[in-house]
Amino acid sequence: MSGADCVFCKIVAGQLPSIKLAEDKHCLAIMDINPFAPGHALVIAHEHHPDLFSTPAETVGAVARMAKRIATAVQEATTPDGLNIVQSNGPGAAQSVLHYHVHVLPRYKGDNGKLNWSLTPGDREAIIDMAAKIKGFL
After folding, report:
1. 138 residues of the chain, pLDDT tens digit each
2. Which of 8, 11, 49, 54 has the fewest CB atoms below 10 angstroms from its CB?
3. Measured between alpha carbons, how far is 138 from 127 in angstroms, rounded to an integer?
4. Structure pTM?
């Protein structure tokens, strides 16, 4: 998907309507029109980058700062039991729009959100081996 075909690029350009919360020179914060819960917001990079890996670090930082600002406001406005900041990359992570963005998700006990996983102790040696593999790419 190119920027010309991207729904988020069209929203940033004002070609599609949105419910705007805030904007700066790097990103736009809007309400999600398919909300998981009341207060579900999105922070969208102005420039088209399909995922975290292709997005410049400066833009990732700007989106993170805006996400914190929006999360703080959502927390105050909705008083949820918790709040997730979600950024997905690729089909395995259920990324539906290939444009770098972050979800601000108010969470409530019993909301049946699928983002939580159970805490199951891992194999320590396998974790150490994986850490060594990851460190090799840093």
Report:
1. 567 899 999 999 999 999 999 999 999 999 999 999 999 999 999 999 999 999 999 999 999 999 999 999 999 999 999 999 999 999 999 899 999 999 999 999 999 888 766 768 888 898 888 888 988 998
2. 54
3. 17
4. 0.90
